Amino acid sequence: MTPLDPLPGKRRYDALIGTGGIGTGMFFALNGNHTFGREESRTGRFLENRDYAKLHIITHYVQTLMGPGFKSVLVGRVGNDDAGKRLMAEMTATGLNLDHVRMLDDAQTMNCICLVYPDGSGGNLTVGDSACTKVDPAAVQEAETDFIAFEGRGIALAAPEVPLSARIELLELATGYRFLRAASFTSEEIRMARDSDMLSKIDVLFLNRDEAAALTDTSAERPPVEVAQAAVDAVRKVQPAMSLLVTAGKDGSYAWDGQQLTHAPACTVKAASAAGAGDAFCGGTLAGLASGLTLAEAQQLGGLTGALSATSPHTINAEIDRISLAVFAQEQGAELSADVKAVLGMR
């Protein structure tokens, strides 16, 4: 894999410390578009698509794009089972630091079944008592030595699929050690974060359109720019300095940097699966910020990463690196800033 070219004198961060879900899953394609009923029996087929959990997906792209000079430290739990062993091997091969990922004998690796309807929509059935639920504040505290080592030079990532208490602890440590604090939430969680003081501990918030609508108790069917602007208005009341990114599928993405709302159009691709594209966007954006790009420029890099990820049937596209993103950008005729082209090695 070929990492990003660092911008001379502009690289901002040397490490990421994150907690969130580590797990796997399988895709089941249903026959028929009607919603699966409580007592219904329906045929379908398992797909070959490989599914991964949020922390793994996001940090895969950050580490791959940043390269061996960057340290991605994961705090998580997997089961001492075949799935856990396979994931540990894959993450190690990517270069992720697993010093704070434990294999548990008394819990299974998080697993889910992703139901896919013929129209492309779907949902997940996820194990509720997996090893991920065992990630607690004490597990996060194990990484304090890494926070100390990279004080003022790191990104903290609080991702879904582990308890909120562990994510709060991560953000507290990040505050004390002057890390950039990034987070994402499910639609259900974002309301809890809003109604507590959790949002005040976040510098960069990643949401999709549904999550942004949930934040403001409005409909995701509104025009995406209205959904994004309402989310901006909501977070400004809690954390005026917060940056916000809202992905909206084919309608592109919106980025608020504290001063203006920037729209980036979506790339046109033949999608094999949109699953994981939002997490890939998050990973690409964080890699851009670490490289020294502005938020709007990092948004461009995130958009390329998310779009190219969708061309793979798996939720991690193992082919993505600086070179593949540069080729993809040229094929798309993407409008990129000079600095984004520089980190991609484009002329």
Highlighted features:
alpha/beta, about 35% helix, globular, about 20% strand, about 350 residues, 14 strands
Compact description:
With 347 residues, this protein is α/β, with parallel strands linked by helices. The protein is 37% helix and 22% strand.
Percentage of β-strand residues: 15-25%
The description of the largest β-sheet is:
9 strands, mixed
Mean pLDDT: 92
How far apart lie the N and C ends? 20 Å
State the helix count. Answer: 12
Helix proportion: 25-40%
Shape: globular
User: Structural class of the helices, strands and pairings?
Assistant: alpha/beta
The total of beta strands comes to 14
Q: What string, H for helix and E for strand, traces the elements in order?
A: EEEEHEHEEEHHEHEHEHHEEEHHHH
CA radius of gyration: 19 Å
**Strand neighbour order, sheet with most strands:** 6-5-1-9-10-11-12-13-14
Poorly predicted segments: none
Structural write-up:
By secondary structure, the chain is an alpha/beta fold. The protein has 12 helices and 14 strands. It has a 9-stranded mixed β-sheet, with helices on both faces. Strand 5, helix 2 and strand 6 form a beta-alpha-beta unit. Helix 1 runs parallel beside helix 9. It is globular and about 60 Å long. The two termini are 20 Å apart.
Question: Would you spell out the secondary-structure blueprint of this structure?
Answer:
Elements: E1 15-19, E2 23-30, E3 44-46, E4 51-52, H1 54-66, E5 71-79, H2 82-94, E6 97-104, E7 110-116, E8 122-126, H3 137-141, H4 144-149, E9 154-158, H5 164-176, E10 180-184, H6 187-195, E11 204-208, H7 209-216, H8 224-238, E12 243-247, E13 253-256, E14 261-264, H9 277-291, H10 295-309, H11 322-332, H12 338-343
Parallel strand pairs: 1-5, 1-9, 2-7, 5-6, 9-10, 10-11, 11-12
Antiparallel strand pairs: 2-3, 2-4, 7-8, 12-13, 13-14
